[in-house]
Amino acid sequence: MDVLPGGSAADAGLVALAEMLAGPVVPAARGLLGCRLSAGGVTVRITEVEAYAGTAGDPASHAHRGRTARNTVMFGPAGHAYVYFTYGMHWCMNVVTGPDGEASAVLLRAGEVVDGLDVARSRRTAVRRDVDLARGPARLCAALGIDKSVYGRYLLGDGPVRLRPADAPVPPSAVAAGPRVGVTGAHDVPWRFWIEDDPTVSDYRRHVPRTRR
């Protein structure tokens, strides 16, 4: 790969990753596939993501109705972590994308544990197969030890949570797209992206609206 003047290939990769995250959310979501996220002594290779467009006409986004104490980090700058608690028991993590003020973000849905396997297993003792350790957004955070302390952290620096470029880009032909999971609004928007045939990708369950009695 090309190297920036006076810099290393790793530096150039981080610059390219930062530029990608600062752009539109859908290309950023696709580009995150294959990237590596490290935290708590574990590294995962990201295999499944979902894009959310913030206030730009996306009713499924946490920022759709504007800025709140919960979602304020989504409004930028890009490259920071948006972590939220769901169902009273699980943490989920997003990577903030786009220009300041747009509030777009990419949910990290699944990954393959590529380093720190024993640590991940110790956090997910009920899991029988290694491919299931980070298979789903809550499981991914559990395997990495991610909780509310990660909220707002910059991911491209040398902090305790680090996002790094893929060792090799995932070919476009290997990227599949489909509807998002578990959202009540715009659930058929095909903004979930995953590495096709990867065993760590989570199962798809179409949203079924609750019926009132």
Question: Can you offer a commentary on this structure?
Answer:
- This protein is an alpha+beta fold and 213 residues long.
- It contains four helices and eight strands.
- The chain has helices spanning 9-21, 25-32, 117-123, 137-144; strands spanning 36-39, 42-52, 81-86, 90-97, 104-115, 161-164, 175-178, 192-195.
- Strands 1, 2, 3, 4, 5, 6, 7 and 8 form an eight-stranded antiparallel sheet that branches.
- Strand 4 and strand 5 (104-115) form a beta hairpin.
Summarize the structure.
By secondary structure, the chain is of the alpha+beta class. The protein is built from 4 helices and 8 strands.
Shape: globular
Structural class designation: alpha+beta
N-to-C terminal Cα separation, in Å? 60 Å
Largest sheet: 8 strands, antiparallel
What is the topological layout?
Blueprint: H1 9-21, H2 25-32, E1 36-39, E2 42-52, E3 81-86, E4 90-97, E5 104-115, H3 117-123, H4 137-144, E6 161-164, E7 175-178, E8 192-195
Antiparallel strand pairs: 1-2, 1-6, 2-5, 2-8, 3-4, 4-5, 7-8
What brief labels describe this structure?
disordered N terminus, 17% helix, 213 residues, alpha+beta
